[in-house]
Design a protein that fits this description.
The complex is a heterodimer. Chain A is mostly beta strands. Chain A is built from no helices and eleven strands. In chain A, a hairpin with a 4-residue loop joins strand 7 (59-64) and strand 8 (69-74). In chain B, strands 2, 4, 5, 6, 9, 10 and 11 form a seven-stranded mixed beta sheet that branches. The radius of gyration of chain B is 13 Å and the shape is globular. In chain B, 38% of the residues are buried. Classes of the chains: A mainly beta, B mainly beta. At the A-B interface, strand 4, strand 5, strand 9 and strand 10 of A face strand 4, strand 5, strand 9 and strand 10 of B.
């Protein structure tokens, strides 16, 4: 399967600060998703971004497929942004598209 | 409201017992998946199903079984053959037939086996 590396593994921010999370992957992909896992374990979809750039409020993401990495930007962080952020990728061209996950970045935003 | 439901939220079993975890979706998605998450780790694929009455093993299928008799349901059985069953189990679905590979997840079931 594809290897997915996320960095940094842990990040502590003061409320209002900005941050960049990185995801490197070992092969070409046709699916890349960013998730936020809340304290109850629910995976919340942030972005579906196999290539290009997207923005949603204070969050934005960029995937450079040819260089096999993706970045998640969080601006003006809030305490509710705390949790674990996962990057997941898949290669399948048809049918079910099995995701390979990184080990996540644990973000703690302090007031 | 469309979504994925998993039940129960918490499940406790004695070693040697089989247990079945429920996953239901009303998103009309064709593909469904089961993942396992261990503490401090990402998710790993157990089984997936592209259509009714068809399913495939994922990376860690040993000790698990599934069925897909209805489009909206994909139950997972954790058998006594699974050596380390205590984990957080998440179900997901996607709609590749509709042109999207994006996966959506249920709230998960925390299984503890003692």
């Amino acid at each position: 399967g594809i290897q997915v590396e996320q960095s940094p593994p842990d990040l502590i921010l003061q409320e209002g600060a900005n941050s960049t999370l990185r995801c490197n992957f070992s092969d070409s992909v046709n699916n890349l998703q960013w998730f936020h896992q809340n304290p109850w374990g629910q995976l919340i979809n942030l972005f579906y971004i196999p290539s290009g750039t997207k923005q949603n409020g204070r969050l934005s993401a960029t995937t450079v497929a040819t260089e096999r990495y993706s970045l998640l930007y969080i601006s003006s962080s809030q305490t509710t942004d705390s949790g674990v952020y996962f990057c997941a990728v898949a290669q399948g061209l048809t049918g079910a598209n099995n995701l390979f996950f990184g080990t996540g970045t644990r973000l703690t935003v302090i007031p | 409201d469309g979504g994925i439901t998993q039940s129960p939220k918490y499940l406790f079993r004695k070693e040697g017992q089989n247990v079945t975890l429920s996953c239901e979706q009303n998103l009309n998605h064709d593909a469904m998946y089961w993942y396992r998450q261990d503490p401090g780790q990402g998710l790993r694929l157990i089984y997936y199903s592209q259509i009714v009455n068809d399913f495939q093993k994922g990376d860690i299928a040993e000790g698990y079984s599934v069925s897909r008799e209805k489009k909206e349901s994909f139950p997972l059985t954790v058998t006594s053959a699974q050596k380390n069953p205590t984990a957080f189990y998440l179900c997901a679905s996607s709609n590749p037939q509709g042109g999207s590979y994006e996966q959506y997840f249920g709230p998960g079931t925390r299984l503890t086996v003692t």
